[in-house]
């Protein structure tokens, strides 16, 4: 049987730039998560605008401004409806916004399905993220989400770069390895448990009501979703024929390149939050 191809040697010269970018952006994100829901809403709105612009550039190069505007308006409408607690209208706007973005793209001689998918790809994640932050102990849940996603990325990068070995999915992501995959999952699980422990120590009067085994399962689900989101965006970039979604963040590419795993992990955490609310994770 033919063995799987091995990942090529990683360029460590880019590590310092990636670390510096993360050191600047991560504290800002955490601060806005922790301050209050309005500050977090501003963070989400800015991120939506940037990601929508990147999507327009990738998916509709001949009508990128119009498609980016349509996607931005559609997703921001969903975000603000969610912030106001109007969840069913928000879900309705996901569908309407996708149709509207598709129509704008068609009028600009671009593929309607690519523009419409931009709304379907971005809006549900933003809805879930704003809802998650608004729940009881939502600041801790959002912190766990971010920390778990970052840990999955970091440990996958470090373990995969150190151990290398067979590639995970060479057709779409030639640098990702199986060693990095399992390293990322281990990091995600450990980080979710650590956040649950910290919550119990620092907020004993208002905990997340999450057992350590429950936190480990949520960390595993979040880690798997992070890896899936990363691979999914790799397939999308292959479809659009681009290496990165943009060049906004030094060492990382565009903002979508930075949050691709987070987009899938947010859905996983929203489901987990509902499960805990129903009392199944104690």
What would your notes on this structure say?
With 282 residues, the chain is mainly alpha-helical. It folds into two domains: 13-134, no CATH class; 136-282, no CATH class. 75% of the residues lie in helices and 3% in strands. The protein has helices at 15-35, 37-59, 64-83, 87-107, 112-134, 138-163, 178-202, 212-240, 255-277; strands at residues 167-169, 173-177. Strands 1-2 form a two-stranded antiparallel ribbon.
Radius of gyration: 19 Å
Which structural class best describes the helix and strand composition? Answer: mainly alpha
Number of helices: 9
Number of strand elements: 2
Give the proportion of residues in helices: over 70%
Q: On the 0-100 scale, what is the average pLDDT?
A: 86
Biggest sheet overview: 2 strands, antiparallel
What's the shape?
globular
Which range does the strand content fall in? under 5%
Quaternary form: single chain
Q: Order of strands across the widest beta sheet?
A: 1-2
Distance N to C terminus: 45 Å
Element order: H for helix, E for strand: HHHHHHEEHHH
Uncertain runs are 1-10
Q: Tell me the domain tally.
A: 2
Question: What are the defining features of this structure?
Answer:
disordered N terminus; 9 helices; globular; 2 domains; two-stranded antiparallel ribbon; mainly alpha; 282 residues
Topology (elements, then pairings):
Layout: H1 15-35, H2 37-59, H3 64-83, H4 87-107, H5 112-134, H6 138-163, E1 167-169, E2 173-177, H7 178-202, H8 212-240, H9 255-277
Antiparallel strand pairs: 1-2
